[in-house]
From TrEMBL:
Keywords: Aminoacyl-tRNA synthetase, ATP-binding, Cytoplasm, Ligase, Nucleotide-binding, Protein biosynthesis. Belongs to the class-II aminoacyl-tRNA synthetase family. ProS type 1 subfamily. Coiled coil: none annotated. Catalyzes the attachment of proline to tRNA(Pro) in a two-step reaction: proline is first activated by ATP to form Pro-AMP and then transferred to the acceptor end of tRNA(Pro). As ProRS can inadvertently accommodate and process non-cognate amino acids such as alanine and cysteine, to avoid such errors it has two additional distinct editing activities against alanine. One activity is designated as 'pretransfer' editing and involves the tRNA(Pro)-independent hydrolysis of activated Ala-AMP. This is Proline--tRNA ligase. Homodimer. Its main location: cytoplasm. It is found in: Cytoplasm. GO terms for molecular function: proline-tRNA ligase activity.
C-alpha cells in the first residue's frame, strides 16, 4: 500500500479526553475516529488490525470444530421476555421501536436467538454436539463510555454457543474452547491470565465460567492470584481460605454496653462486627462480617442464586431497624429478616455488635451460640497477603482487561425456550449449553496497552497490520525513488505486506509516523541508495542495521 494514498490521518498531540494509552495511540496513529460518545469509525489501519485478529479467531475456532454463521443485530424483545432477561439485563440493554410500535433490542449477546435457531433445527441427539459462532457488532448503552474501545457503546465481538445432550459433552466442549482461547490470545501476543469469574446476566449462577484477562494497569478488573501456584480469580468471586478450627476467645455471657464504652471493648480481645443490609429479590438480608472486611455482592448473589441484589441505603436501614447504621445488629432482629454470616467468623466467641437500640452495643457475641440459625457463607472480598485458597502461596493483585470469557450455561436458556432433543432412549431432554465470547475490538485495545513505548505502538509480529514499512527519505532524489520503487515491487513479490511511505514529506515526519504506526521492521532508503545500502530498524529493540539490497531478502528471512 502506497502511503501517499493511504487514509491514515495522524495526530501529533494527545487528545485531552483520551485517558487510556490504547485510546491515545489509536487516535494519534489514525486507527479510528470518534463518531459519538463510545462509538467509533475504524479507519483502514484500524480495520486491518481488526481483520488480523478475526483471522486468528476464525482459524482457531474452525480448527476446534466450530461453525461460523451470522445472526441479526436487531432482536424482537419477545425473545428476551421469554427467557426472562428483558428486565434482568438492566438499562445497558438498548431498545427501539419500529414504525408499528413493536419493541426490539440491539443485541449485546445472542443466547435467545441461537437457542431458538437450534431448537427449530435439531431434534435428535445424533446431530450433537454442535458449536456455532459469529463475529458481529454488539451494543451496550454504557452510562459512561470511557477508555476508547475498552468500554464503548458499540463493539465487535466473537460469540459462540455450544449445544450438547449430556454434561460430559458440555464439559468436553468447554475444555476445548478454554484451550482454543489460550491459543488465540497467545497468537495475539497478549500476557493474560485465565481466572474464575462470575457469570452475571449471561449465565447467572448456572455454571462454571472463566474470564481471560489481559494484564494492564488501565484494566478495570482486579485479579487475585497466588504467588506460588496457578490459582487466579476475579476479586469479586475469589474464594477466601476457610478459617482454622481454633476457637477465638472463651465464651462469656452477653453484655450490653453504651457507645461511650465501645472503644474500650474493641481495644481488648473483642472483634467488631460489621452488619450490612442488602435487599435480595426485594427481601431484607443482613450480612454479618468482620468490620475490616468488605462484602462481595457477587458472592451474595451466587449464594441466593439471583441477580437482584442491592445494598440498602442509610435511609432504608433506619426505616427497617429504627436506628442508625452503627447500632444495627443481628440479635433480636425481626423474624422476617434473613441473616447470613461470613465464614471468617465461624469460630468467633467474643464479638461486639450493634444492639438494635440507639447508642447501644452488645459484646461477648458467640457466633455458634447466638447466631446458630444463620447461614455460614464465604462472602468477603479477598485481600492482598491472604493465604491462597488452594493452600499454596499468598494472594497478590493485578489489574486486567477482560478480553474473553467462557461459560457453562447448562439448561438456563434451553428450558425456558423449550430447546429439547430426543436422547438415545427416545426421551426428550433440554439441551446443555455453553457460551464463549471474545471482545475483538477490546482485544485490539489490550494489545496496544501491552505493546507500546513513548514513540508509539509496537505490534507483535502475528497481528501487525503490515509486515514492513518502506520509507523513501527524499522523494525528490531520483536514485532513492528508483531503489524504493524496485524494493516495493520485489518485497511484495517475496510475499511481504508492505506499507510504502512515498509521500513528499521530510524524513523526520516519516520517521515519527513510522514509530507511531509500530510496524516490526522499517526499511529506510536514504543517502546511500546509490551504493545499494538501506537501513533496517527493528521497531521493538531500536537496533539499526545497514544492509545491501542484494542481501536484504536473506536478512529479512533471518
Amino acid at each position: 500500500m502506497r502511503q501517499q494514498l493511504f487514509f491514515s490521518p495522524t495526530m501529533r498531540d494527545v487528545p485531552s479526553d483520551a485517558e487510556a494509552m490504547s485510546h491515545q495511540l489509536m487516535l494519534r496513529a489514525g486507527l479510528m475516529r470518534q463518531t459519538a460518545s463510545g462509538i467509533y469509525s475504524y479507519l483502514p489501519l484500524g480495520l486491518r488490525m481488526i481483520q488480523k485478529i478475526q483471522t486468528i479467531i476464525r482459524e482457531e475456532m474452525n480448527a476446534a470444530g466450530a461453525q461460523e454463521l451470522l445472526m441479526p443485530a436487531i432482536q424482537p424483545s419477545e425473545l428476551w421476555e421469554e427467557s426472562g432477561r428483558l428486565g434482568d439485563y438492566g438499562p445497558e440493554l438498548m431498545r427501539l421501536n419500529d414504525r408499528h410500535d413493536r419493541e426490539f433490542v440491539l443485541g449485546p449477546t445472542h443466547e435467545e436467538v441461537i437457542t431458538t435457531l437450534v431448537r427449530d433445527g435439531i431434534a435428535s441427539y445424533k446431530r450433537l454436539p454442535v458449536n456455532l459462532y459469529q463475529i458481529q457488532t454488539k451494543y451496550r448503552d454504557e452510562r459512561r463510555p470511557r477508555f476508547g474501545l475498552l468500554r464503548g457503546r458499540e463493539f465487535i465481538m466473537k460469540d459462540a454457543y455450544s449445544f450438547s445432550v449430556s454434561d460430559d459433552e458440555l464439559n468436553e466442549t468447554y475444555e476445548s474452547m478454554y484451550k482454543t482461547y489460550e491459543r488465540i490470545f497467545k497468537r495475539c501476543g497478549l500476557d493474560f491470565r485465565a481466572v474464575k469469574a462470575d457469570g452475571g446476566a449471561i449465565s447467572g449462577s448456572a455454571g462454571e465460567t472463566h474470564e481471560f484477562q489481559a494484564l494492564a494497569a488501565i484494566g478495570e478488573d482486579t485479579i487475585a492470584y497466588s504467588d506460588a501456584s496457578t490459582f487466579a480469580a476475579n476479586i469479586e468471586i475469589a474464594a477466601t481460605a476457610a478459617p482454622t478450627d481454633e476457637e477465638i476467645g472463651v465464651e462469656q455471657d452477653l453484655k450490653e454496653i453504651s457507645a461511650d464504652n465501645l472503644a474500650a471493648a474493641v481495644s481488648g480481645n473483642s472483634i467488631e462486627l460489621r452488619n450490612t443490609l442488602f435487599f435480595v429479590d426485594e427481601k431484607p438480608v443482613l450480612v454479618v462480617s468482620k468490620a475490616e472486611d468488605t462484602i462481595s455482592d457477587v458472592k451474595l448473589s451466587g449464594h441466593f442464586k439471583t441477580l437482584a441484589v442491592q445494598e440498602a441505603s442509610s435511609k432504608e436501614v433506619e426505616a427497617l431497624f429504627g436506628v442508625e447504621q452503627a447500632y444495627v445488629g443481628p440479635l433480636h432482629a425481626d423474624e422476617g429478616l434473613t441473616i447470613v454470616v461470613d465464614h471468617g467468623l465461624t469460630h468467633v466467641k467474643n464479638a461486639t455488635t450493634g444492639a438494635n437500640a440507639q447508642g447501644q452495643y452488645v459484646t461477648n457475641v458467640s457466633i455458634s451460640r447466638d447466631l446458630a440459625d444463620a447461614d455460614i457463607v464465604d462472602l468477603r472480598m479477598i485481600k492482598e497477603g491472604d493465604a491462597s485458597p488452594d493452600g499454596v502461596g499468598t494472594i497478590q493483585f493485578a489489574q486486567g482487561i477482560e478480553v474473553g470469557q467462557v461459560f457453562k450455561l447448562g439448561t438456563k436458556y434451553s428450558e425456558v425456550l423449550k430447546a429439547e432433543v430426543l436422547d438415545e432412549n427416545g426421551r426428550s431432554q433440554p439441551l446443555k449449553m455453553g457460551c464463549y465470547g471474545i471482545g475483538v475490538s477490546r482485544t485490539l485495545a489490550a494489545i496496544i496497552e501491552q505493546h507500546h513505548d513513548e514513540n508509539g505502538i509496537v505490534w507483535p509480529q502475528e497481528v501487525t497490520p503490515f509486515d514492513l514499512h518502506l520509507l523513501v527519505l527524499n522523494a525528490k532524489a531520483d536514485e532513492q525513488v528508483e531503489l524504493s520503487e524496485k524494493l516495493y515491487e520485489t518485497l511484495q513479490q517475496d510475499g511481504y505486506d508492505v506499507l510504502y511511505d512515498d509521500r513528499k514529506e521530510r524524513a523526520g515526519v516519516k520517521f515519527k509516523d513510522s514509530d507511531l504506526f509500530g510496524l516490526p521492521l522499517r526499511i529506510a532508503v536514504g543517502k546511500r541508495a546509490s551504493e545499494g545500502i538501506v537501513e533496517v530498524k527493528e521497531r521493538k529493540t531500536g537496533v539499526v542495521h545497514e544492509v545491501h539490497v542484494d542481501e536484504l531478502a536473506a536478512f529479512l528471512k533471518r
